[in-house]
Design goal:
Layout: E1 3-4, H1 15-27, H2 37-57, E2 64-67, H3 70-82, E3 90-94, H4 99-110, E4 114-118, H5 128-134, E5 139-143, H6 157-166, E6 170-174, E7 193-197, E8 208-212, H7 227-230, H8 238-273, E9 279-281, E10 292-297, H9 310-319, E11 322-323, E12 325-326, E13 329-331, E14 334-336, H10 339-343, H11 348-351, E15 354-358, H12 365-382
Parallel strand pairs: 1-11, 3-4, 3-5, 5-6, 6-7
Antiparallel strand pairs: 2-8, 7-8, 9-10, 10-15, 12-15, 13-14
Helix pairs in contact: 1-8, 2-8, 3-4, 8-12
């Protein structure tokens, strides 16, 4: 039995998107910047996709800038804003950002920018009052992830955005894990910039977008032909963008029913693991992505070693035909603890033992039940049969 539970990493491309992409590759392959018929056919496909992505966010097409994915969209937001300033200023991010935010911010820090990284509580949530206190006269940008990919926690984006807006500070959110899974209406959400990705909503890899509120100025990262409202030069990947548009349109149509279905499956998996002494849930159980389940492994007392890690469980479940992911990383043969779990107050021993199971359109109750049973069997085999006490 094969069970894929890594939908936060990527989703399978929908057949409807593949069908249109095949048509583009074989029949509508013109350069969308060309003025002749072949080019204008492709340009029309790009603009139709822009409308569909805009509809998913309830915005106008002109506010959507196509990118190569969520990482580029995040970098465009961070670097596009900060490059508007002749000398370093101050920016604020959370301590649980995706590396697509935290890494470019490290670069800015090396260039003299002042950076505040807001702490989070045990559930991974930012306290809006701490954002309020962190704002300075030279703060030019705040970027807070909407839905954390490793532990599933949703941030109080509306409250955070309202604080920024009241101080005249630009607010960006990485919504890659949220768009297509929860309704996102940028007419109501106080955000100036928002990142999303095609392959997280059953579109192809290699396409993404940045929502840019009207009036927000960005300096382009690339010089060139001035495509994408002069903000993202380079010939558009027409097939990928067209597939992205299809995925966005279908996500918009199905979000109400699919979100409630995923929540039921998510809670079913959490419930089946509550009686196991070796796992504790991580992230906020109330303010949570609808498709997201995450745990920290709890070794028995006096047996805290590197034998059982998140990576171990990924491999063991893979042997059983189940695909999940872990938050820790392997560097030069040594397991490094998850920076997200460390930021949430977990010990280094605990932070190498986080796992993530994320659900999608093809996930069934049978998949959930099978996975819970297999995971319990693996834990029973890897650890002695006695209750554990472990300081997480």
């Amino acid at each position: 039995m094969q069970v894929y539970l890594d939908y936060s990493a990527t989703t399978p491309t929908r057949p409807e998107a593949i069908a249109l992409m095949q048509q583009v590759f074989t029949q509508q392959w013109g350069n969308p910047s060309s003025l002749h018929t072949w080019g204008q056919r492709s340009a029309t496909l790009v603009e139709r996709a822009r409308i569909k992505v805009a509809n998913l966010l309830n915005t106008v097409p002109e506010s959507i800038i196509f990118t190569s994915g969520g990482t580029e969209a995040d970098n465009m937001a961070i670097m596009g804003v900060t490059r508007c300033y002749g000398k370093p200023q101050h920016i604020i991010i959370s301590s649980v950002e995706h590396s697509a935010i935290s890494e470019p911010v490290k670069m800015l820090e090396n260039w003299g920018w002042q950076v505040t990284r807001l702490p989070v509580d045990r559930q991974g949530r930012v306290d809006p009052q701490q954002l309020q206190a962190a704002l300075q006269s030279n703060t030019v940008l705040v970027s807070i992830i909407y839905g954390q990919s490793e532990v599933g926690t949703l941030q109080p984006i509306t409250e955070l955005g309202n604080i920024c807006r009241s101080h005249g500070v630009l607010f960006h959110t990485d919504a890659v894990q949220v768009v297509g899974r929860l309704p996102v209406d940028v007419q109501k959400l106080p955000v100036d910039l928002l990142s999303l990705s095609s392959h997280k909503i059953y579109g192809p890899q290699g396409a993404g977008a940045l929502y840019v509120r009207k009036g927000v100025e960005l300096v382009p990262l690339l010089g060139g032909g001035g495509q994408e409202m002069k903000l993202r030069s380079g010939t558009q990947a027409v097939a990928a963008i067209a597939g992205f548009g299809v995925a966005a349109e279908l996500a918009n149509e199905e979000i109400a029913t699919e979100t409630s279905r995923l929540i039921r499956l998510r809670d079913r998996l959490f419930a089946q693991m509550t009686d196991n002494p070796y796992v504790i849930s991580t992230g906020d159980r109330l303010y949570r992505l609808p498709h997201h389940v995450s745990f920290c492994i709890v070794p028995p007392e006096n047996e805290i070693d590197d034998k059982v890690t998140g990576k171990t469980l990924v491999r063991q479940l893979n042997l059983a035909g189940i695909g999940i992911s872990a938050g820790s990383a392997c560097h030069s043969g040594k397991i490094a603890p998850s920076p997200i779990l460390l930021a949430m107050g977990y010990t280094e021993d605990a932070a190498i033992r986080g796992i993530r199971l994320t659900l999608g359109r093809e996930t069934t109750e049978a998949d959930i039940d099978w996975t819970a049973m297999v995971l319990k069997q693996i834990l029973a085999r890897l650890m002695p049969q006695r209750l554990a006490v472990f300081n997480c």
